[in-house]
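Appendix B. Extra example for self-study. Work through it before the problem class; the solution is given directly after the inputs so you can check yourself.
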Amino acid sequence: MCIKNSNMSETFVPSDYFPVVIFFIFALLIGFGTLLLGVVLRPKRPYTQKLYPYESGNPPVGEPRYKFSVKFYIIAMLFVVFDVEAVFLYPWAVAYNKLGIFGFAEMMLFVFILLIGYIYVWKKGAFDWE
Amino acid sequence: MLKYILIPLLPLLSFIINILFGRNFIKDKAHWIAVPAVAGSFILAVSAFMDVQAGNVINVNIYNWIVSGNFNVTIGFLIDQLTAIMLIVVTSISTLIFIYSIGYMHGDGGYYRFFSYLSLFVFSMLMLVMANNFLLLYFGWEAVGLCSYFLIGFWFHKKSAADAGKKAFIVNRFGDFGFGLGVILVYLTFGSLDYLKIFSNTGIVLGQTINIFGNDIDLITLICLMLFCGAIGKSAQIPLHVWLPDAMEGPTPVSALIHAATMVTAGVFMVARCNPLFSLSHTAMNTVAVVGGVTAIFAATIALVQNDIKRVIAYSTVSQLGYMFLALGVGAYSAGIFHLYTHAYFKALLFLGSGSVIHALHNEQNMQNMGGLKKYMPITYGVFILATLSITGIPPFAGFFSKDEILWRAYSGGELGKFLWLLATVAALLTAFYSWRLIFLTFHGRFRGTHEQEHHLHESPRVITVPLMLLAIGAVAAGWVGIPPLLMEHGDKIGEFLAPVLGHPHGEGSHAEEMMVMGMSILVAAAGWFIAYQMYVKKTDLPMKVGAMFQPLYKLLYNKYYVDELYSRIFVQPVLKLSDKVILGFFDAKIIEGVVNGVPNLIGAFSNKFRKIQTGLLSNYGLVMAIGALAIIGYIIFMR
Amino acid sequence: MNTANYLVDITMIMPELTLICVALILLLLDLVVKNKEVLAAVGIAGTLVALYGTYKLFVFHAPQSVFADMFVLDGYSNFFKLIFYLNIILTILISLKYMTIEKASFGEYYSLLIFATTGMMIMASAADLIVLYLGLELMALSTYILAGLMRKQLRSNEAALKYFFLGAFSSAILLYGISMTYGLTGTTNLREIAAALQTLNIMESPAVFLGLIFLIVAFGFKVALAPFHMWAPDVYEGAPTSITAFMSVGPKAAGFAVMGRVLFEAFGGMQMQWNSILIPLAVITMAVGSIIALAQTNIKRMLAYSSIAHAGYMLLGIIAGTPEGLASTANYLMIYMFMNIGAFAIVIMLRREGFQGENLDDYMGLAKSHPLASALMLIFMFSLTGIPPTAGFIGKFYVFMEVIRSGYTYLAIIAVIFSVISAFFYLRVVMYMYMKDPKEDVTLTTSSTLSIALAITAIMVLILGIFPSFLLNLVRSSIPG
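Solution. Structure tokens for the complete assembly:
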């Protein structure tokens, strides 16, 4: 291989970064160490009641993860899109005087594009629940 | 001008017409197009030869292929003395083989296909020899390889044939890769791919070196060795010789074409063509000579014990090609080309003759099941004898003159000369032995095949025997253009003719020495005959005894030094394993997928399908990416 | 900041704007027009208009940068845009009938293709890391959806999901690289980065290098360099074949376009450093692509690995580190587009109702029943192998030559070895077609548009192989030394 990096080694030596490595090691040690400490020190007396997700609530029935209708997701996504549009309108409205006609045109374009999306979504029937 | 373009164009047209209309219209009349086309090429080639003889060397650029800034490649033809001889060899042999194929391939399902591939093959070879630059040479080189792939595997129902085709292709690729790099290096060094520009400018490479993995390598040596790599592959020299003997799985006319006129001679031609480059590198020249010499003797020993008639001839081809390279390597380029030219005739004759035998015996190729054929097939026997006299080097048959020229040039040339001469002389002895062994086993004694076969024995039809007889003329007389000056004043016409391109070989020696070399060559040829005669005609139990006495050696030779097995063990199997198990398992998730699919179904049918992606493969892929990125960083930090 | 100035700027992005408009129109048109062929026609027409726009800009305006130097128009970007235009047109041509067979003939298909193409064009013109990211995401999000367009097929869903997650991963890495570079140089503009590296004298700084590594990793993902190629085989296999063809060319070309521009323009002074990463990557990529492809029996998967291997060859041009080298990569991409889409068009032909036609076995004896299609496939396979006189040879020859010229002879040797290996799996297809007997009758699905696409690709592969000067001159004048 003909990789020549002689000019780099002058300024960069791995040992320069040794403190960083030590820092990482300490971070790991402290993180895992405290967890480990808890495991070692805490009393372990499990019983059925205690292992319920909600110890003093209703006993759970079935799996906690089950399917939602995909329609919820669609609505949620569409909401986010138009929400962002609304959020965009605020700063634009505040600075409207400074932006002038060009700003107006740009925002109209933006709204127009979203409008096309809106029509598209509507026509495709994404808003129909059934 | 048009005349020269037509030489390769006629076979190309034959190919196009046959491949387009063969299936539905031409069918079993394909030879009506192919034979006239190649015969026309032959006539034009003769005319081109006469032009050259009259002193008109043609070098025309036909078309500017790449014109872009400093990147220029033109395509054109160079027809000089060397090309003229090659043209004659290629077209004359091809014409006869085409005619022979009419009879041999009669009734084959792929009749039109056969002739169209054959035409394409000839076209490619003609492009190769007529090129005036390396790129066109490379094109012809690749095209010849591809055609051979199709032709060797022509009977693809036969597994061995399909495998042989594949093997020829794969082995050739290894050679071609070196050749391709050689061509690129030539371009970068000389800034051109045009022969004449390069050969007139060879001075600039002297003393240049190139750095590869920290070692300085002489540039011209590297270029020559790279180019020679290609020649090793195409011309079946050690260590890439393994494809050629298998190539006889193809129809016999194809074997003849490959072994005699096209394909294998490409390597010899190329080295001769590049002689101004090779002459500059001592190392490369010696490599060529040694590879040639060793191959000559190596292949000859294998041929001693083979029982398949075509296989014996195939190894004899490898051996004879070794002779040619030996000649090239000692600087006797014209001797190499001379031998190429005589060899083409007697080798085509041997192959087509064996095809005639095989035809008569209904595809029996084992010589142990033949014998006594001379009374059934007198013409085939006669031409076989002539070809054998020629290949073993009995004067005044063609092979004698070319072989003697090589032996003499080896003896008189270079520091390795005497050693190479010794190799070649021993190889000549072996050649004589196995050639006569073939004759005696096939044509003498009594018939050892089944009664069924004996009943059907017959001489081949006219369409097969006439080309044989024509080739026999060549096998006898082709060498007379190169009678050494020692025996005849103004002899060695071919050497003089080629001298403008290939130069004169240098080397000193007295007449007495030359006589000695010549005498030796005749002596060993006679000795080979004598031993074979003793073993296979007089005392027919002797071969068995000898075989038993040298059992391990016999086995080694019979199994061709186990080279195929070795390659399979060293290259083929590990690569397959690597591809199949290690890398596939590591990089391709099929195996991981299997494990994940086995994880018990926890969450229900729908999500399980996606679970497979989310927790199995996908994170795995992401992991590989992350590890890759980290590996780069690590590599950068620690590898400096 | 006056309006007139903006109008000038906007003129320069007219082709991109045209495409966006066409995509929006297609979305609306889809709601009223039932015949999808109309949409395809509108899509192609719109692309041609944009192509004309790019041509006009090329003719009338000298290379310049607009939008505060964030967007450049030069020969380099124009050449890549030409690749993108041809890519989308050919993709639309091959997909019409095919998407009907897959029962995935949605109108969105065409607008998504156009959105993706717009993203690529923005990438090709990006002179600023932020704009680059914008284009990249536009391209990527569109292709994610396209990969999963066959909603009823699990394979397609899987492909899309995998592509999406890994793509998001790589985007994150890209952003990381961008932010590191920005943090160290104080700018996202490529030329200013180069200047800052000079003036601040931080070229040897490991932090800059780390940012560079992240950028390369992200680009490497887009062009499928090993070991960031993991997504490619699964996604290529699962996605609709026409999209596979589209993806194997478009995002790859766009990835190389930005890689070339970022490395040459912003990090031009650090060639030693980036080459020390790219060289091993190129070798690994060629090795992985060529060797694993040997073991494939599904032709789409095989072409996926082949596409990885080709990425390795293309990378050589960048490693060469000269404008000539960059030109050789661009040239390779243009050639690769024709031959690869051609090969995929044949794959598409084999697909019919109730028959996948993706196994190598399905190609057995194709030459007997369909000589023309086999001959075309033969041309494409030869070209992918790099056998003269096909275009593939020119592409490889040029790249290898440039990399040798820059002194990396050993890389060329390695590349040639792997292209030798790659010959085996390409020619295996040829062998199956010509030298085996058919197992069952294969009927080909043909349509006029598919035939047009096949004719264009096959003719171009041959023409560029036999008359390469035109393309070479074009690419050399586009990327001046």
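Self-check: The radius of gyration of chain A is 29 Å. If your reasoning did not lead you there, revisit section 3.
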